[in-house]
Amino acid sequence: MESTISSIGLNDYEEGLVQGHLKVLNTKTHRTWHYQGANMDADLIITKRPITVTSQTCVAILSGDVFKKVDDRCYHIGESLRIFSFLELLRDIEDNAERESKDDENMPAILAAEQLSLYCHTLSDRQSHFQIVIGEQILCQGYSDQGEWHLMTRFPKKELIHQLATKTINLKKSQSVQVQDTQHEGIHHFSVRAIVWELSIAYPSREPFKDQLFKIATWPLLGTWHTEPYMPRLSALYGRQFASIAEGAKFTNSSETQVHAFLTACQLCQLGMKKQPLPLNQATHTEETTSSSDNHETAGLLKGLRRKLGLAFGYE
Amino acid sequence: MNNGKKILFIGSMGAGKTTAISSISDDPPVTTEAMNSARHISDKQTTTVAMDFGRIYLDQFDAIDLYGIPGQDHFDFLWPILEKGALGAIFLLDCSQGDIPETLDRFCNAFARLRDNNAIVIALNRTDQHSVQRCQQWLFDNNLTLPLILSDPRERTDVLMLLELLIANVEAELFSAGETQ
Q1: Are residues A42 and A74 part of one domain?
Q2: Which residues on chain B are in Cβ contact (under 8 Å) with A246?
Q3: Chain A: nearest CA to B14, how far in angstroms?
Q4: A231-275, pLDDT tens digit by residue?
Q5: CATH number for A241
Q6: Residues of chain B contacting A295 with CB distance shorter than 8 Å
Q7: Of the four listed, A106, A124, A237, B19, which is most buried by Cβ atoms within 10 Å?
Q8: What is the full DSSP assignment across A157-210?
């Protein structure tokens, strides 16, 4: 894949430096980058002052001493235009583009999960029934049983998730549904929250809940809903206290994307999520407190117990 | 060899305490089974009249003790004694017996220290959607964020899941206190 670079306000030496760097770096980046001269439309514009550009263009400002990312579209790369800063810049832009493309792929799933969650949450009449329709085809029928919304469908779970994740769905109220039991040939029943949960986990959105702390009031139904090894720890952490996404990732050795997906799933499954703004200069827990020898001993025992029973996280 | 650390399994008659401990204990559990004279509550032939005891050996020096404690009121004098030093408790609740939120309320009040440390896991068996909803609602109304799971104590993997949740909770507490992993 090819991408373009232009510049505004750079002198001849600096333009030459950019071209020289590209000759070296084009073997170290995923894309092939071309410098196409000054004052042109491009994927990346290098400049000495902040400028206004279209939403798809990235801007790198020659200022300061070191590489610094302001946001996904704006960077400071140092006045001296050092090659390592330049490489970091190009790689970061490539990573962002890859994540955005993944986001686009996941968008139908994210929308389906949100749509389903919101629809059931706002259906006040528990006697109501609804259908999920793709085009003219009825994908499944929704009904309430003992206070929980369920879906009845001819599709097995994997196929149902795939359909929801890849197609545009419509939800509409329907007349009464003849709820057939599971013994009925080829009929499957799933709780709506289990489906919303799995969609949210399997197809995470990229836009994170930035600069916030989270807490949940209710644990997810682990073991019944789709469960990954990091989920008990995440549930325990966010069930106990307000914590950031970074803390969740650190505590579970999982990625921030996984933590974000978990929190999205908690929110869509109505698990009583609360948010707080992240305090400025938030100190880490280890800086705030000192651990006692008793805690240290307990941590050791738990690690031993995990190892003995073959539970997750026991092998670090 | 004893560091005094223990995990409690608490539940009514027939809830599966003995079975759960048997499935993970390294030693055959010490049980106090006797003929069941309360067949109207549970139809099993024998029942635990004092407590069950099992042990998981971690290494040459450390072990975790497992106590199965009957949930009937006439055993409640034992509860505060056993709660001391406990890492946490697993409430095994048979949803076919009695009023589950009421039982939860009784157990949570009796093991208040563990409740306040979130060191409790609630395991429901023989359950239905309605019981799950009622338990979740009870927890929510009482401002308690405790793990609730559908579980069959005859399945070792289910019992391991209960321990996983309990350990995760204790680890979260340690994490908050600065013990990172």
Answers
A1: yes
A2: none
A3: 22
A4: 999 999 999 999 999 999 999 988 888 999 999 999 999 999 999
A5: 1.10.10
A6: 174, 177-179
A7: A237
A8: HHHHHHHHHHS--EEEEES---PPPTTSTT-EEEEHHHHHHHHHHHS--SS--T
pLDDT at B3 over 70: no
Residue-level pLDDT at B81: 87
Residue A89, domain member (yes or no)? no
Give me the pLDDT at residue A287, please: 43
Q: Do B163 and A241 touch (CB under 8 A)?
A: no
Q: Distance (Å, rounded) from C-alpha B66 to C-alpha A177? A: 49
Residues A53 and A13 in one domain: yes
For residues A218 and A194, state if they share a domain: no
Chain A nearest C-alpha distance from B41 (Å): 26
- Number of neighbours of residue A266 by Cβ within 10 angstroms: 25
Q: Are A28 and A87 in contact (CB under 8 A)?
A: yes
Q: For the residues A106-134, what does the mean pLDDT come to?
A: 85
Q: Are residues A138 and A216 in the same domain?
A: no
Contact status of A51 with chain B (Cβ, < 8 Å): no
| pTM of the complete model beyond 0.80 | no
Provide the token pair at B140.
């929510």
Domain enclosing residue A43, as ranges = 2-81
